[in-house]
Amino acid sequence: MAPSSKTPFANLPAAPIAPKKPVSDTRHGITRTDDYAWLRDDNWQAMFKDPSILDPEIRKHLEAENSYMEAALGDTADLQKALFAEMRGRIKEDDSSVPVKDGPFAYGSLFVTGGEQPHYFRTPRDGGDKQTLLNGDKEAAGKDYFRLAGIDHTTDHSRGIWGYDDKGSEYFTLRIRDLATGEDLADVIENTAGGGVWAPDGKSFFYTLQDENHRPSKVFHHIVGQPQSSDRLVFEEKDPGFFMGVGGSLLDDFIYIDIHDHETSEYRLIPTSDLMAEPKLVAEREEGIEYSMTEGGEVFYILTNDGDAKDFKIVEAPASAPGKENWKEVVPHEPGRLIISHMAYARHLIWLQRKDGLPQIVIRDRTSGEEHAIAFDEEAYSLGLSGAAEYETNTIRFSYSSMTTPTQLFDYDMVTRERVLLKTQEVPSGHNPDDYVTRRVMAPAHDGELVPVSLLYRKDTPLDGSSPCLLYGYGAYGMTIPASFSTNALSLADRGIVYAIAHIRGGKDKGFAWYENGKMEFKQNTFKDFISAADHLVSTGFTAYDRIIAEGGSAGGMLMGAVANMAPEKFAGIIAAVPFVDVLNTMLDDTLPLTPPEWPEWGNPIESEEEYRWIAAYSPYDNVTGRAYPPILAISGLTDPRVTYWEPTKWVAKLREMTTGTAPILLKTNMAAGHGGKSGRFQRLEEIAFEYAFAIKVAGKM
Prior knowledge:
- By secondary structure, the chain is of the alpha+beta class.
- Helices cover 19% and strands 33% of the residues.
- It is built from 13 helices and 37 strands.
- Strand 24 and strand 25 (371-374) form a beta hairpin.
- Helix 3 packs across helix 13 (681-698) and helix 7 (524-539) crosses helix 8 (555-566).
């Protein structure tokens, strides 16, 4: 039975119609009119911290949209429950991490049966009774939204900094806990980015403060026992286009201040031997030059693209003089081998790289220079490199999975090359990898490039064009979407739906050039690649156009909006989670949290007419026109500081106004959540079940 935009949705009530209140804007001699600009609350900054002050007219409209969405998807209630039960059944409810050794203790986290939030614990180094350091379920009690930022302990293991956000706005409050008693000290640090870095003596820590525009623009030094108002300003970044973070070295010798946008970086260092010292610049920022640092005793190892090393190289410099003039190449640049991250230990340098589209872990003996890679057998897989918490070690930790293989956690001895399996992800309801097939196919793009597409499906799924397909894409910021194991995707595969990931330009799936050719003036390659992936899946019999449901979130939601405008006839339905769809208006407003830092990714339409025109050519909201759109589900969070709630709200209003078809355009606004949706692990499953229920309904598989 072929899915149809007419049959799945019948007898719906009248959809909400947003009033038009035209606002005109002229830039570079070009005038645009925005009929729905009023949906942005003038008081948005304050509203993120206190959602109750949302403009009543806007609240009424959002609630009407939620009611309409519930009417359209009310018949999926039982399906959502079934999906949720399946997904929950694949999760080991009382799961625990394998503790990581650090000094006299080993630290880990666990969930309890029925619990939504993690519990952080420690044991004696070589095993023993668990001591609970932080009970997330207890801290979250009575709150509609609660997200932990973890807990970081002092060098002497006596205290911990922990952070939480209880509104979804990503303004985190920090507290200090006495780890022996479990009691919190009186210190309360508000409006932070979500963590802190202890000084070695455990008497003070460094943190970043979020300003009124939600930018981490200042680093402060807090003395335990003092009020936040007396905290010393350590460094302020004046350029609103840069993010800032603070971290610490493994040897506790330095505090790192990391300043960066999407293509340029700068580090400043504070020696922990002199916490009052002025942060020392390592290498002055140069547009397009990135670098990151890890300490290796008397040297720093620096990962950088300096000197035309597009796919990155590793250099070293003396810890006492780490400036660029002292950089000496250690791991040369190799075109097509993208070095993603690096770590240093007493006797080894390790790095995670991607070559031929697949990740690899490489280990180098710092004395002999001998290198080896950890080998894997499957043709498509995902790796996670967690390293170690101690510098004096030969053992690192990594994770491995594929779309059919549950996650495995290993300890690896870098000297003997022995690999010890610590844990395999349990699927309590059962999982037989032999029931499923994972493949990687290459889709020809419009310009001759080949776009990798990872596939998961049951081996009995017909590949004659009759099967539905959920096609996922992201394609921005150089983010690579791994071909990893997803227990949730099994609910689609078990219903005869092909689950596909399009590794489109804008990510670094095929190296740094893959990213460069999917940003700025080349952004439309991202959208065309996704459509090419859909075309290839149809031409090779995996699915048909009237059976493809497209899905993407955030910048992937922009992708959804763009392909809806460019090729609506090639998709049976579209799911756009927290979609960045009002690109031009957002990039023209430098007061919004992410706008200045995003200009290197999309362009600066304020300063450049050319870049204005790039964005105007694809911005989903600006390119909605009179055509038949497929069923669309947009999802947003009221307190989302990344993709503000009004973007999908305006987009849905305009789609509903302009569509010439009868398919419903739906909006769900989480009134008590932000960019990541609800925070609890089962609450999150409810949201995925909701999205999948829409896809299954559209696919005609209910």
